Amino acid sequence: MIFDRPTSVELVEAVSEFLLKEIKTNLPAHLAFKTQIAINVLNIVRREQENKELLTKESKEILLNLLSNPQEANIKELAEQIAAGKLELENKELQKALIDITKKKISVDNPKYSTYQKLIK
Amino acid sequence: MSEELQLKIEEFLLKNGIEGKVSELVPLTGGASAETWRFTFSNKNKSEQMILRRGSGKKSPLAVLKSEEAAIQQKVKSSGAPVPEIVAISSDDKDLGDAYLMSLIPGESIARKILRDKKFSEARQKLAFQCGEALAKIHSVNLKDFEQVPKKPIREELDRLYLTYKSFKQPLPVFEYTFKWLDIQNFTTRKDALVHGDFRLGNLMIDESGLAAVIDWEMVSIGNPMLDIGWMCINSWRFGQSEKVVGGFGDLEEFLEGYSSISKEIIDHEEIKIWQVLGTLRWGVICLIQVYSHLNGDVNSLEKAAIGRRVSETEIDLVDLLFLGGK
Fold first, then answer.
1. Residue B33: band (very low, low, confident or very high) from pLDDT cuts 50, 70, 90
2. Pairing of β B204-207 and β B34-42
3. Any chain B CB within 8 A of the CB of A28?
4. Which of A110, B75, B130, B258 fits as disulfide partner to B211, beta carbons 3.0 to 4.6 Å?
């Protein structure tokens, strides 16, 4: 890594804080709403930066376990094998893989989402 | 821009035999595919609030034209379902383009306010029953009056959703699984009905005593009425209040009670589940359509970009419904 601090995560955090505390509060409702969307987007970027290495590694393990061939252990191949009927709908390991990978995605995209909160309790 | 529009509205109303002045014209944030304006219309007899809804005039696979939407609303109104009164319809560029004017129904359409503000607490008690009742009225209209409405048999609709999803080349294993799963489900055959297509908070005007009007008819079709019932019961439209299956405010029993106060159709819970799965998937594909309209450069919009990361909300709801006993 050749870059100095602040890290990309720290930079994104700074912008997000600035929008929340100094910009959003001084805007009319419809622009405050849009600013909140911008803040949400920056928070996605932050969570993805912080967690992507671990989440990608864990997902790869799940995919390898299900698809065995290392060359095939990716999301595209999983989608294709389901579409082609190579993985059956009753397959419990497939179902568990879909649950686990989806949880990892939503933990970055929107960890406050009601269904995710219910499932990690 | 808005002064010019003000004059155009006055001219157009005059052409329809309604003389008066337009003032306080303001844009409202609303649906993504149409612009919406509110204004005051006054003459020597009265002063009232009206709404202008205006589309791009382009045919879209999801939405009917604004002029068609208005004509459909006019006819639905005679069935007794609560729908705003249409004042005039334009389909000519010399007038307002593809647009219509309607009277403003006082009330609130923002879901989070309806679900949380104290002033709607009484309305929330009755809303599930009223929504069931209104939907049943919409589903019982005589189809002879709606021959111009596009027919969307559910299997064809699913094929269309699949092709749309595939066209974006973004592999989503949960979606593939769900399409396969829906392929082998037994959809109870029901008599074709007028289907609103987007019946949920956001498209309902609510006042202190409950449901005041059903708005935003652009996704209307002729098809299986269960689509509207499942759509109203998906977690995507509960706005965080997941424990209340119907729209985040009501229970399924009250909703179905309202429905069967008008309709003789018998609906069981297992059947609703299939339509919840279908509805959640449909919303997921609509999110993809929205984000790719941004990514392809058709419209540059932060909201549309952000909605791409809401696809995983539909995925988690799908795995919950399919594997984990979600409701």
1. low
2. unpaired
3. no
4. B130
